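Figure-free illustration: sequence to structure, shown twice.
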Amino acid sequence: MPRFCSALLAFVGLFIGSCAVAQEPTQFQPHTYRGGKDAELKYQLLSPAAAAQPGDEKFPLVLFLHGAGERGSDNQAQLKHGTGNFATAALRQKYPCYVAAPQCRTGQWWNTQADLLLELIADLQKQHRIDPQRIYVTGLSMGGFGTWELISRKPELFAAAAPICGGGDPAKATACASLPIWVFHGAQDTVVRPELSRVMVEALKKAGGMPKYTEYPGVGHDSWTATYADPAFMEWLFAQKRQ
């Protein structure tokens, strides 16, 4: 079994309740996407205030992928970590955007729902004023693995990616080497070993990419709290645009 698959399976059933809880967002609205073959994906959507006004302006879309502990069907648990940073008044004013936070079903993984996630993005583009040149994906833990999976499957869709404490398949790095990617991991992470991010970063470099990598000294699995609270990260993310 490949190393990245072994690492993914290693934290089956692990919850992230021991980590810091971000501000609970209240501006998100629950929705359900229904695809082919009776596929269903529940998600929460944060919309920019300006989108309610008439006009032709389009806004970025951030796809946020939660960790293993937030799987389920309540369409609420996925907002526990990370999404609150995108919902603050200051960020919504400075970087108006859509934020879609789907919820992975119990017993499933983001890599098994990757096609459904891509369908969701296409559906959101039909319904909302989304700038196709500014679609971003980020996720933590299991969502970090999902981020790597999505950008290796369809790199041309995204303007940037930020996988946090995740891992991927180094053999697929060539597919997304040209994409702006900022990788994050805690140096003391015992749930998902930082070596998994390091391997992906090196694979991207060997493929001609120029990824950014931040490894937090003394930090365990919760490397997302510092990442999403960092103004430099938000500035970098929203500055990216597909050419």
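We now fold a second protein in the same way, so the two outputs can be compared directly.
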Amino acid sequence: MIDTRTAPYAALLLRLGLGVLFLAHVGLKLFVFTPAGTAAFFGKLGLPEPLAYLVMLAEAAGGVGLILGIATRWLALLTLPILLGAIFTVHAANGFFFTAPGGGWEYPAFWALALAVQALLGDGALALGPTLLPALSVRSPQTA
């Protein structure tokens, strides 16, 4: 049974955690690897180098949006391909465990699963989304 008193706070904690992870990863790309280095890495993977800049923008916007609770379901779904891309282009060949050289697919797969859960849960508590973007807010039949 779902505890409807605490579920909004569970969704909030998940939303905050996911948002912070995206900001940490875009920070890594900006300040450690540099945008040019990240683009070169994408090129070595056989991906178009400009895609790196789109990924960094999506990570930054997705992170901020998730933290604020703006269009949470949509942001979770729209950022999911970033993790799926990381799994299939970088980590899948390295095995399951993330401690493997090059990092296995365990961590990005769990992160992708968490994004799917967030998309199903919705905004949670303290979200700005329903106030700022009511047209993008998905309401359950109980709250409609």
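Summary for the second example: The chain has one domain: 7-130.
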